Structures are given as C-alpha cells and as structure tokens.
C-alpha cells in the first residue's frame, strides 16, 4: 500500500476521539469521586487505575489478537467497531450514574466504559505502523499525536464551557464526538490488502481460542526480549516509558484536584490549565516527529524530559509562593501556570511522539501489534502505579507533593534513556539511516 500523509491524518481521528474521552475522564472523575462519594485521595487513585488495569491485562492480548485477525475490513477495524460504540454509550451514562449518587451504579458504569475502551485502543495504535514505513513513523506518530492533542484541547477548553453549564454536557458531547471520529477511521482508512480476506467472515471463537493459547506465550517471549536479552536497549526504553508515565499520569489525574483544593480555584479552570499542555502538544507534535527524524529520537526525548521537568518544577515553586486571586483565566497566577504548562507541553510532545516508533523499530513487521501491546503494557503499568502512589503522598503530606513527585520520575526517565542504543532512525539528506550508537 502506498504511504500517504492524508491517510495518517484520517487515522488520527481515532486518536482524536480517544483523547477526548480520556482527557474528560481524568479531569472530572476524581472530582466526582471526592465530592459526591467522599473518597480519600488514595482510594480515588486506586479507582483511577481501572483503565490501566484493563490495559495491562488486555492490551498485549488484544494487540496480538488483532495481529492474527483477517476479515474483509482488515485486522484492526473489527475491534474499533466492537469497542467504540459501547464505550461511547457507557461514557455518556457516567453523569447519569453520578446523579443517582449510587456508588455501585457509578462504579459499574465506569468499569464497563474502561473495558470497552481497552477493547479497541491497542488495535487503533497498531494501525499506524501497519500503513507506515519505518523511516516515516516518527513523522506519522507526530501527526496522530497532533490529532490527539486537538482532541485533548477540545476536551479541556470546550469541556470547561460545557461543564460550567452542566456537568453532564462534556460527557454527552465527548461520547458523540468519539463515536463519529472512529467511524471516519473505519470508513476512510483502508487496511493493507494482505490483512483483508474478501468474502471471509471472521470466526471470533476460533480467533480467541488460538490467540488465548499463543498471546500470553508471545507476551512472555516479548518480556524475555526485555529482561533476558544481552543488549538492554529495549529494557531501558520501556523502563523510561514506565517512569515518565508515572510522572505525567500523576499530574493528569490530580491536577484538577490540586487546582480546587490547593490553589482554591474551580476544577474547570484547572482542567483548562491542563488544556494548555494539550495546546502546545498539538502545535509541536508534528515538529517533534520531524525533529526526532533529523537529530535522533533519543536526543529529542531526552531534551523533552528536561523541558517538562523544568516546567513542573517552576509550577511547583509558583504554587507554593503565590495563590490565584480568582478562577478567572486572566488572573496573573493562572496565566503564569499556563505559560509554564505550555512550555511543558512542548517537552511532552518531544517525548511522546518519538517513543512508540523507537519501540516498534526494535522488532519485525510480524510482531508490530505484539510490541505495540508491550509498549502499552509498560505505560499502563506505570499508570496503574501512579494514581494510588501519588494519592497516598497527597493524603499523608498534602497537595504540595504532586508536582515534585512528577519531576523526580521525569528525571529518572531522562537518566535511563541514556542507556538506549537501538530504535533510532535519523534522516540525512532525505535518506533514512539506521541509528548507530557510536555516532553519538
């Protein structure tokens, strides 16, 4: 199949829709849990790991399962069609469940929503390397992360307006947009011909049976590549991913709570401030991919980690020395936070855009889905650890620990990245060169 940037932009709508859902979920669910159901921050953190628990358990399996799938639609689209509509419905029902103030109903709704999101997330991610040659993957990942940034931006900025009208409106709008965005992917992004079997119906039972026997064996084999290989680049790459997602997820989960309970401003304003990260991420996602292709992914990621660490440290010092006078976006302290977060979002783009291409370029075409699942296994394992760990610090010491907690893990990631020697591709005068460690 001929590579086309237009297809990557269309595929980006899948990331656009997913990003809207998770941005709204992470911004407002912790507030619901603490305000409506009076949960502690530690327990709130545990609840916020449900999506990550599903991800750790299911994403490697589903990545491998979609690798083996052959249908008239291809190997990734059936999972989008199964997961996206169901996830959208459950997401729209979250504020309805909150209105009843019934914890069992509320928890059941978010558990089902998280399950259905997990069902199609890994296949959507694995779709990108399916239709992109190795030397173009940083640039392609930049495009789809740009689209994800647009989704997060819409969720945070538009979500504030809707939330201030009625807390249910962002959930209704987010569900509808996510559903339409993934429909665009199914209708307009063709899968490679070798993964489409004309006239053959998918045998889901046979597929599940075969994959259940093989996928965990594949995960074990892939994890052996990580831990038993003499060359440790994959291990240190995944360890770095684990560290920086602990850092980012702790801020993403608790910043609206930090804004409300520590800075004394409305949670919707805190969500808007996080939206500035998405704005700069969106603006710099494509340049970050180009930069990774030109100067090297490792150097770009390292520089990004230093930038986002500096931004979080600056935000911590600001929050400890001054407090906003109001929730207005024009408040001087709020504006300073947004400037720092804009800078941090640039660094986060440099990190996030170039990381998945490094992982998938350490394997073969046949294992793309499995290694995509491996990438998400470590990132979601980090997200499984981050909320309860950060929440425990918040309960014991207070909200002043949130941003320093993130800084420590961003810097640990920068350190471990220095031991990664594979997975880099540098563009030189239009040609792709494999990364040679001695060139550093």
TrEMBL record:
Domain Major facilitator superfamily (MFS) profile per the UniProt entry, residue ranges: 7-424
Pfam hit, one: MFS_1
Transmembrane region(s): 7-25, 45-66, 78-97, 103-122, 143-163, 169-189, 234-251, 271-293, 300-318, 333-353, 374-396, 402-420
Keywords: Membrane, Transmembrane, Transmembrane helix
Coiled-coil annotated residue ranges, if any: none
Statement: the UniProt record of this protein carries the keyword Transmembrane: yes
Recorded GO MF terms: transmembrane transporter activity
InterPro entries membership: MFS, MFS_dom, MFS_trans_sf
Protein name, UniProt field: Sucrose transporter
